[in-house]
Design a protein that fits this description.
By secondary structure, this protein is mainly beta. Helix content is 11%, strand content 36%. The chain has two domains: 1-30; 55-302, Sandwich (Jelly Rolls). The chain has two helices and 18 strands.
Length: 303
């Protein structure tokens, strides 16, 4: 009995010492360092997301496609053309309403007062086409009018086409029906065969970017944003915004066509597009022009 009385305090001391030692070891373990991501010093030779969160599949690498890459120091007619087919009224495409200046490709909306097609604008299309697996991204600042500033990929016509809309951004909707448009990408795909349309859209909002992303919550007209798409295979399409994944879509049918890159600026009197542009805005050069700083494109190839 005396032995047990002696043993109990000894065990208690041993337990206390062991517990203290364990606590000391836990307390001595440093907290993990927070992940610091540099969104402003990314490698221009690779997709932006590779510098932020590299998701390149093992055993593959990104190979630059020079004919679909440009810093827009000049208008390179070997790479780009002004393709001027019209959308519906009131849009009219004109060669004079696009060009290159000060290191930017620009597309401007102007007013032809009194005309039925009073919204004068333009479109730029690549001469080269591309297929999956590929990635393209473009640094863009939108016009601040109620119009779609677009960066998209397409081949075909209204009844038969493959189309990937990377953005259709409207920073100034006039309809009072799309309050999220100043931050919403409006990305989607269309696959049309003999008039039968398959489509899925994503409405990623730039206010959902990571808290450390400096462009989180910045409206499309208030700064340049990098918008991109990773066209992975015949059906899987992943959109990107400012180096981060920004929604994805899956096609109901296989994409089969090589696609062109396209930028344009257009309006329509429809709520789904944010409403028609105000005519007085088209005379204001501080808001009527879409700017494209650069475009960069890669194919995904085996190492």
């Amino acid at each position: 009995m005396k032995f047990v009385k002696f043993l109990l305090p000894v065990c208690a001391l041993l337990f206390l010492a062991t517990s203290c030692k364990d606590d000391e070891e836990v307390n001595m373990t440093p907290d993990p360092e927070p992940v610091v991501r540099d969104f402003e010093n990314t490698d221009p030779n690779l997709p932006m997301f590779v510098s932020i969160d590299d998701r390149t599949p093992p055993g593959q690498k990104w190979e630059k496609v020079e004919m679909l890459t440009d810093d827009f120091d000049t208008f390179d007619t070997e790479k780009w053309r002004k393709e001027l087919w019209n959308y519906g009224v009131p849009v009219r495409m004109k060669a004079e309403n696009s060009g290159v200046a000060d290191g930017n490709l620009w597309i401007k909306a102007t007013l032809d007062e009194g005309a039925s097609r009073w919204f004068e604008t333009s479109r730029i299309t690549s001469n080269t086409q591309i297929n999956y697996p590929m990635y393209t991204e473009s640094r863009i600042k939108t016009a601040h009018i109620s119009a779609f500033n677009t960066f998209w990929m397409n081949n075909g016509d209204i009844d038969n086409r493959d189309e990937i809309d990377i953005i259709e951004n409207n920073s100034k909707p006039s309809c009072d029906c799309e309050p999220n448009f100043p931050w919403q990408m409006n990305s989607q795909y269309f696959h049309v065969v003999d008039g039968d349309t398959q489509r899925a859209k994503g409405n990623f909002d730039n206010r959902a970017l990571s808290s450390d992303n400096p462009l989180r919550g910045v409206q499309w007209n208030e700064g340049y944003h990098v918008v991109g798409v990773w066209w992975k295979n015949a059906r899987d399409i992943q959109f990107y915004l400012d180096g981060e994944p920004a929604g994805s879509v899956v096609s109901a049918r296989d994409f089969t066509r090589d696609l062109n890159l396209i930028w344009d600026l257009w309006t329509i009197d429809a709520d789904w597009a944010g409403g028609i542009a105000a005519q007085e805005d088209l005379a204001d050069d501080s808001m009527n022009t879409m700017y494209v700083d650069w475009v960069r494109t890669w194919k995904l190839v085996e190492e």
